[in-house]
Amino acid sequence: MSEIPKLILVKKILVNPNNPRFYEDTPSSTEIDAINAMIALGNSKILSLCEDIAIEGLMPNQSLIISPIEEKSNCYLAHDGNRRLTCIKLMTVYKNHLNKFNLSPSEVEKIKKLSCNIKYISCIVTSDKKRINQLLYRQHVAVAGISQVNWNSQVKAHFLANNNEKATKALAIARMITNSEKIMISEETIKQISNGGWHTKVDRLLTNKEYGYLLGIEFDSKNNIKCFFEKSIQENIILNFFQKAFKVTASEYIQKAADRTKFYNEFIAQFKINDISLINTSYTFSPYTSEYLPPKDPTPKELIKRTIAKYNVTSGDANPGGSANPGGSANPGGSANPGGSANPGGSANPGGSANPGGSANPGGVIPPFMSTLKITTVDVTKPENRPLLLVTEEIRAFSCGTRTVAYKKYPIAATILFRSLVEQCFKYLLRETYPKLYASLQARSNGDPTLRILVDTINQQKNSIFPAKSTTKRFYTALCDGRNKDSFQDFFNLAAHHSRYDLHALNTNAANFLPIAEFILNTPLTNKETP
């Protein structure tokens, strides 16, 4: 089946308040609400798309999918293309009414300066809901459309569950949280759920039935949630589980069964799950109706108690759970630092180094690699800087030791950690010096620019980013040497994909990059873009 696109007047098409990108089960009621919700998913991405459309126009092969609105004559509702429609309307229909939207004064000024003359837009028009869903499935779930922002796993799950497909376990958990009547949910948590980035991690942490018992739940064949704790306690456990899962990185707890076990070792100890009383008869939460069903089946108390005891490592062994903390939790406060940041003193290290003691090596032997790396000027209060702070701390610890130096024993892991440091440094550098350009790179790379894109972009701006010619030369020599342009990235790829390693190459590349990292992490960076 092939529909013929039609040109429809932009002001006759409404941005859809019930877009799958908007997680909330209670949809927005007006187009203003819908546009604000779209902006909330990423101001910088919307601004970048506005600029792209203003300069380049729309892709000729991309038509909106719309349906007639029965109660509004000659008006339509957008089912696909809502981001493009939002941008066009901000630059045309609402250009003189931008105060209606959650935009900063500078963002309003940027949009006002853009020129967009699009009055009509190509659309596929159909009132057949089944056909609309078929088109959306092909576009976003089965095979993503070219140059469109692909739906992440959360949005795909939300869309499928809303169209009579099986809900994922992670989506069921999120819907239990957002529909809670017993607990207070912070705006930060709602924002986390809305913006995504949690679905795959949470789903992996629920792969084993035993893991569910540790949370007091069990999933049936349709992923309805059977609950074994009193409702307010149950919802609070699920909320804390989600918040802990959201904070961890995939490499930290998610990839291996042993790491997931460690996650639950810590969680049980932190929230004293073994001390909570089980109810006699379970009740069920449906992620499809977002309602609780009446109590029905008896709670398998003995099975759940045995499972919790199996994972409970707070007594007996100093640390059978394999955690660096005998108490079973890296931090009872639920974060890497009870103060809420990588360093409660407001800096990654009050002493001006990623290692407060001056060296992770009490023996005083400082090997090469990244043992001298310092970090003093990065704002630890910004969430987007946290990955950089963590990887800096880890790579320094990997560089030091009294007997066995970790980077020598595990060179492939050290290489992958080194690559993470390079990428996080460059993302931070561009966020601080060229935020608008970086937002554009994110928009074109589904939120995650590759190392090659980062290197090439910084190379183009190196003279303004690096004030000293010596630093500029170091950057070009280490990462962009025209005689062997791909050698730096090839070094990482060979280790990551082919398990090939060379300690000499590792140390050489680290030595070349260290001055660049020192500049990035210890220099007050300023915005270089023209206002």
Number of helices: 23
**Structural class based on helices, strands and sheet pairing:** alpha+beta
Order of strands in the sheet with the most strands?
A: 1-5-3-4-2
Helix percent band: 40-55%
Domain count: 3
* Largest sheet data: 5 strands, mixed
Task: Summarize this entry quickly.
This protein is α+β, with helices and mostly antiparallel strands.
Write a structural description.
With 531 residues, the chain is an alpha+beta fold. It folds into three domains: 6-150, no CATH class; 169-311, no CATH class; 383-522. Helices cover 48% and strands 7% of the residues. The protein contains 23 helices and nine strands. The strands form two sheets. It has a five-stranded mixed sheet with strand order 1-5-3-4-2. A four-stranded antiparallel sheet has the order 6-7-8-9. Helix 7 (169-178) packs across helix 11 and helix 21 (469-479) runs antiparallel to helix 23 (503-522). It is flat, with a radius of gyration of 26 Å. 35% of the residues are buried.
Layout of helices and strands, plus pairs?
Elements: E1 6-9, E2 13-14, H1 31-40, H2 43-56, E3 64-68, E4 76-80, H3 82-91, H4 105-113, E5 120-125, H5 129-142, H6 153-162, H7 169-178, H8 187-195, H9 199-204, H10 209-214, E6 217-219, E7 225-227, H11 231-247, H12 250-254, H13 257-271, E8 283-286, E9 291-293, H14 301-311, H15 386-399, H16 406-409, H17 411-433, H18 435-444, H19 451-460, H20 462-465, H21 469-479, H22 487-498, H23 503-522
Parallel strand pairs: 2-4, 3-5
Antiparallel strand pairs: 1-5, 3-4, 6-7, 7-8, 8-9
